[in-house]
C-alpha cells in the first residue's frame, strides 16, 4: 500500500513539476515577458538586416549587441555639423527636372570609429505612405549620402560606440526642401 | 524515501501557490512595462500585447509609434499614430501635430491637427507636449514663411500667458521666434522689441538673441556694438545658451559658424 502511494506521489510530482515549468516558460524570466498572439516582433524597431543592407560588405560594427541611437547619450554627428552636411548635400544634388515629392529616408549605422555603413532606403510620399521614387533620384541621393564619410561616433561609458542614424530628405517636385533630423 | 509522499504533498502545495499567483494579465501594467527600452523587441511585443488585450488603448498605439518616429521610419509611425487618434483624438491629435511640425517639417499638416484639436475642445486652449497650440501654430506658420499668421499666434499666446501667469512665465523661444517673424516681415522695431524681451528674461545670455540684436545694429551701422554682441553670442554658444532641440534641428537654428561669419564680417567693417 505504502509503495503504491509512493509511486502515485512520484507521478503526481512529475506532472506538477512539468506544469510549473510550462507556466514559468511563458510568464517567467526564461522567455520575454509579454508576447502577443499575432504579429510577434522578432527584431527591434531600428534593426537593419545586414544581409539586405547596402554597402555592408567590409563594414564592421564594434559591438553588434550594443548599438545606440544617434541621439543618445552624446549624439553621433557629422564631422562638419548639420550646416556642413546640408551644404554638402545641397551643393551636390541636381534636381534634373524630377517631379517626385515625398520623403526619401536613408538609415545606416555609424560605427565606433566614425565610419558609416549598412544602409537601407525607405521611400514614402508626402502622406508618409510607401511609394517608389525616380530611380535616378534615389541613386543620386544615396551616392551623396554615402559620400558623407567622417562622423563623430557616439560616446558612452568612456568608450566610442556604434549608433543607428538616419537622414530624411523631404522632397517637393524634385527639390530638397528639408533635411531631417 | 519514507518521507517522499509528504515531500511531494509539500511540493504540490507550493506549486499550486505559484500557479495561482499567475494573475490575470493587466494591460495597464504591461503598458508601463512596454514603455521601457523604447523600440526594443521586449517593448514592442509588450505594447502589441496591450493592443490585443485592450483594443481601445490609444496610448499603447501612441507608444508603438514613437520609436519609428525617432528612427526615420515614417510609414510605421503613421500606422500606429493614426490608430491612436482614431481611438482618442482629443488626447493625441495635438501630439501628432507636434510630430508633423518637428519630425516631418510638414507645417500644413501640423496646423491642420492643431486646428482640429481646437474644434474638438472649443473654448479651451490645449497644450500638447507642454505648450499652447497657439505657440506651436506660431512656429508652424514661421516654417511656412507666413509671418503675419506666425506673429498673430505668438501675440495671442504671449498675451494669454502674460494675463494668466505673468510675462516671465512666457516660453522664451516665443520671443525669439516672434522676433524672427518680425525681422523677416521687415519690421525691425518690433523685432528688436521681441529680441529684447528674450534677452531680458535670459539675463542677456542667449546666443540667438545677441546674434539677432547684432544684425539689427549692423543694419544701423553700429558695427562696434554689433561686434561686442557677436562676441557675447559666441561665449553664450560655447556655454550652451542657444536654441536647440533634442532629436531634431530646431527652426532657424544658429551654429557657431554663423556667429564666426558675422564676427568676420563685422571685424572688417570695424577693425579690432
Instruction: Using the CA coordinates, give the radius of gyration of chain A.
Output: 25 Å
Mean pLDDT of chain B: 93
N-to-C terminal Cα separation of chain A, in Å?
78 Å
The tally of structural domains of chain A comes to 2
| Cα distance spanning the termini of chain B | 98 Å
3D shape of chain B: elongated
Descriptive report:
- The complex is a heterodimer of chains A (181) and B (272).
- Chain A has 2 domains: 2-34; 67-180.
- Chain A is 28% helix and 27% strand.
- Chain A has 3 helices and 8 strands.
- Chain A has helices at residues 2-27, 81-92, 135-146; strands at 67-69, 77-78, 102-110, 116-124, 151-152, 154-156, 159-172, 175-180.
- In chain A, strands 1, 3, 4, 6, 7 and 8 form a 6-stranded mixed β-sheet that branches.
- In chain A, strand 3 and strand 4 (116-124) form a beta hairpin.
- The longest helix of chain A has 26 residues, at 2-27.
- The radius of gyration of chain A is 25 Å and the shape is elongated.
- The termini of chain A are far apart.
- Mean pLDDT of chain A is 90; it is low at 22-30.
- In chain B, helix 3 (41-53) runs antiparallel to helix 4 (58-71), helix 8 packs antiparallel against helix 9 (147-164) and helix 11 (188-201) packs antiparallel against helix 12.
- Chain B is 71% helix and 0% strand.
- The longest helix of chain B is centred in the middle third of the chain and has 18 residues, at 147-164.
- Classes of the chains: A alpha+beta (181), B mainly alpha (272).
- The interface between A and B is large, with 51 and 49 residues.
Provide a short characterization of the protein structure.
With 181 residues, chain A is an alpha+beta fold. Chain A is built from three helices and eight strands; from the N terminus they run αββαββαββββ.
Amino acid at each position: 500500500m505504502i509503495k503504491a502511494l509512493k509511486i502515485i506521489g512520484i507521478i503526481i510530482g512529475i506532472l506538477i513539476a512539468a506544469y510549473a515549468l510550462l507556466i514559468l516558460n511563458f510568464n517567467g524570466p526564461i522567455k520575454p515577458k509579454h508576447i502577443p498572439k499575432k504579429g510577434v516582433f522578432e527584431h527591434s524597431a531600428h534593426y537593419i538586416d545586414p544581409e539586405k543592407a547596402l554597402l555592408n560588405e567590409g563594414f564592421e560594427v564594434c559591438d553588434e549587441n550594443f548599438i545606440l541611437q544617434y541621439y543618445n547619450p552624446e549624439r553621433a554627428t557629422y564631422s562638419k555639423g548639420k550646416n556642413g552636411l546640408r551644404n554638402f548635400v545641397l551643393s551636390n544634388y541636381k534636381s534634373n527636372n524630377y517631379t517626385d515629392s515625398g520623403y526619401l529616408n536613408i538609415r545606416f549605422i555609424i560605427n565606433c570609429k566614425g565610419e558609416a555603413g549598412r544602409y537601407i532606403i525607405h521611400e514614402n510620399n508626402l502622406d508618409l505612405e510607401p511609394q517608389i521614387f525616380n530611380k535616378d533620384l534615389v541613386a543620386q541621393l544615396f551616392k551623396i549620402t554615402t559620400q558623407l564619410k567622417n562622423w563623430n561616433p557616439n560616446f558612452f561609458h568612456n568608450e566610442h560606440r556604434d549608433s543607428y542614424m538616419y537622414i530624411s530628405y523631404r522632397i517637393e517636385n524634385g527639390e530638397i526642401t528639408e533635411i531631417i533630423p | 524515501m519514507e518521507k517522499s509522499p509528504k515531500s511531494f504533498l509539500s511540493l504540490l502545495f507550493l506549486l499550486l501557490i505559484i500557479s495561482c499567483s499567475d494573475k490575470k494579465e493587466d494591460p495597464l501594467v504591461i503598458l508601463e512595462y512596454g514603455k521601457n527600452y523604447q523600440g526594443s523587441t521586449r517593448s514592442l511585443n509588450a505594447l502589441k500585447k496591450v493592443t490585443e488585450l485592450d483594443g481601445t488603448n490609444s496610448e499603447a498605439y501612441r507608444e508603438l509609434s514613437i520609436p519609428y518616429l525617432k528612427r526615420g521610419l515614417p510609414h510605421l509611425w503613421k500606422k500606429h499614430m493614426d490608430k491612436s487618434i482614431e481611438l482618442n483624438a482629443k488626447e493625441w491629435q495635438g501630439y501628432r501635430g507636434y510630430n508633423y511640425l518637428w519630425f516631418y517639417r510638414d507645417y500644413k499638416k501640423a496646423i491642420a491637427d492643431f486646428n482640429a484639436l481646437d474644434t474638438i475642445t472649443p473654448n479651451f486652449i490645449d497644450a500638447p507636449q507642454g505648450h499652447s497650440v497657439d505657440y506651436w501654430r506660431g512656429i508652424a506658420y514661421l516654417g511656412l514663411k507666413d509671418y503675419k499668421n506666425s506673429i498673430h499666434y505668438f501675440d495671442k499666446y504671449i498675451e494669454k500667458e502674460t494675463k494668466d501667469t505673468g510675462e516671465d512665465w512666457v516660453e522664451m523661444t516665443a520671443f525669439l521666434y516672434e522676433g524672427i517673424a518680425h525681422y523677416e516681415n521687415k519690421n525691425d522695431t518690433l523685432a528688436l522689441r521681441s529680441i529684447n524681451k528674450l534677452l531680458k528674461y535670459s539675463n542677456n545670455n542667449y546666443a540667438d538673441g545677441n546674434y539677432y540684436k547684432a544684425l539689427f545694429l549692423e543694419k544701423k551701422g553700429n558695427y562696434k556694438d554689433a561686434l561686442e554682441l557677436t562676441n557675447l553670442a559666441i561665449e553664450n554658444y560655447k556655454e550652451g545658451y542657444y536654441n536647440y532641440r533634442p532629436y531634431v534641428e530646431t527652426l532657424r537654428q544658429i551654429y557657431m559658424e554663423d556667429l564666426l561669419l558675422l564676427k568676420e564680417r563685422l571685424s572688417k567693417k570695424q577693425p579690432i
